[in-house]
Amino acid sequence: MKRGVSLLAPGGSLEMAQAVFAAGADAVYVGARGWSRRTAQYELSDGEIREINCLAQSLGKEVRVALNTNFSPAEMDLFLAKMERFSSWGVRGLILTDPGAMYLVKSHYPQMEVHVSAGANAINVEDLQFYKEIGVEMVVAPCNLTVEEITDIKRHVDVGVEVFLHSNTCFTYLGKCLMSSYFRYQWYWDDEGKNHFWGSPNRGGYCHRVCKAHWNLEDGRDAHLRNDMFLAFSNLPYYLEAGVDCLKIQGREYTPGLIGEIVAFYRALVDDLLHRGREVDMTAYLSQLHQLSRKRDAQRNRRTFTVLQEVVEEVPQGV
Length: 319
What we know:
Helix content is about 45%, strand content about 15%. The chain is of the alpha/beta class. It starts with 5 loop residues before the first strand and ends in a 5-residue tail after the last helix.
């Protein structure tokens, strides 16, 4: 078993960051407002990011800032200004999708770690080799990669690999899905000059989770595509044996209390697996996971069925 694997949790607010650190997370990820794949409700201002980074530093923990959209040429100066600000505060981890942004960071701020977002769709050995050559430290594997594929990547490329433990699984390749853009496509510029494309999470808008809605099939059956965190649970021992470097829990949209429970559950399970390996009885943890799943589903369903109204309210008047 690999030792030293880190547990990464969401930091949707200072309260959430405090909860997940207390529950055993090694690091949190936060979204820079207007620059990550969430609505502003689940992103943070630069001041809030600085506050969480100070908390992390005081605890010997890490913060990774997600700016994992694709940038236009006009936005690169804005991006570099943020990098200067974050670097001066001691932020050391970034989650990026845009290769040009990765190049700029490594050219101007080589001390900052770059982690390639799952939205970049690095799905094979050649993809990861490319990112390693431009200097990145870690690549986030898309949810639909198998254990065998991840094992093969770790065998052939000496770069960190992060996998999802608890996530909203995309049923297409993340970063290449256009379903939300068909549903709604508008844009506006914020006060900083950043362009927001509503309906395109790849450009700072929101994923409307079209694939997770209730659909009526032509034969009358009801179809509801859902993620399966139980698959990641069953794969966890094999991820550790493959040598993955980071295990990620998603959930900025959930309450800090629920996320704290989820982190504490995975902290105990991961530590047990690292200590005892295949001797761990996974079924002993399964009932706990079912309880967490029910709580998670209740919060997620409320969120999914109200998100469209929130998105409408968030679009500035006149757009």
